[in-house]
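task queued by scheduler; priority normal; single chain, no ligands, no partner chains; default sampling; output format set to structure tokens
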Amino acid sequence: MKYLAFLILSIILLLSGCTATENQINMKKTNIMEGKKILMIIAPENFRDEEFLEPKKVFENHGLEVDVASKGVSEAKGMLGARAKVDLDIKDVNAEDYEAIVFVGGS
């Protein structure tokens, strides 16, 4: 989990033009990405709960607006029971609207 958090925050800092060491990433949260958008793409069923919930929380805590896309559903279901509100269908995604796109794994 520590590695996943380090990876996520490294991506955020790289998107903002910054670089960081692990110690810097463990410092208090910053809002360097406030107002920017990120898209998370999840499967309609059996997405990995932790691969969706933890990064989404980190992104939002750093000021990113997170949209969730999936195929043909308004609510997706995770492997461990999490439920996620889907903001848009994958066919309606315009990649140019986002700073980054994250594909969440699943079974």
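post-processing summary
- The mean pLDDT is 83.
- The beta strands are 37-41, 45-47, 65-70, 75-78, 83-85, 88-89, 100-103.
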